[in-house]
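[job 0417] fold request received: AraC family transcriptional regulator
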Amino acid sequence: MKALPFKIPKTQHNAILFQEDSSTLFYDKLHQHEEIQISCIIKGEGTLLISDTVHPYKQGSVFVIGSWQPHVFRSIYRNGEISNMFSIFFSPSSFGETFFNLSELQKTHAFFEAATYGFQPTIRTDDLVSIFYKMQSASEYDRLILFLELIKLLSVNSKKLLTTGLFTQILSEHEGKRMSEIMDLILTNFHKKLSLEDAVTTANMTKTAFCKYFKNRTNRTFFDFLTEVRIHHAADTLLRYPDLPIQLIAEQCGFNNLSHFNRKFRHYKDTTPSAYRDSQGS
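[job 0417] inference complete; emitting structure tokens
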């Protein structure tokens, strides 16, 4: 299966595709596709890497991924437990060039504007999850009606944008494979000691070429991106395991110095680890 680009198996007679992924691990290669993707996590937890950012996900999380945004859902493997995700794939043009420009659908423009960056709805997620469950067994006609209801709710919902919008490239298969291997290195080994040489070897590039390549595609240095991944995992672990000592969490996420961890955590989260745990966990 090609890493990038990724072909969505939608027939020419269907405007939308409903897909259910059920496995111990979701498809774990960085990929991109033309279709807008709306995904709902039914069961499981892990990390969504999208373009130049990382975000934790868990049961009930809903994400909108824009056209051609490189992304991968990296599941946390837990003793063979199954992860389950429902997704809708569609291209606006499948409905005709002017459908979403109709005056009756003017409110959907907020959805498509935010989808350019990718976004996560922040309220009424239970209503969104309910629609996905109904879609699972619905006829094609009813599924289309439910899809429009889903777009309606997502259009008026409060939104957390997922990316900076700076990454707009459509990657070649070769580039996609290279980026996938680099991201796999980071997401699989962030808790270990990772060096620039490890990344350079994985990418099969010189150090100078790699640093320029990575910065151009993520708007971050390799170590800035690695640190951000570590902080995201640390923040998630702080809330999932409220009794776990902060120093142990720092070590498990790749920090061997507590003061350095505290300083980086404050930089990314604007608060201390203990204050974050107290405020988010309450």
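[job 0417] notes: DSSP finds ten helices and nine strands in the chain. The chain has a mean pLDDT of 89.
[job 0417] exit 0
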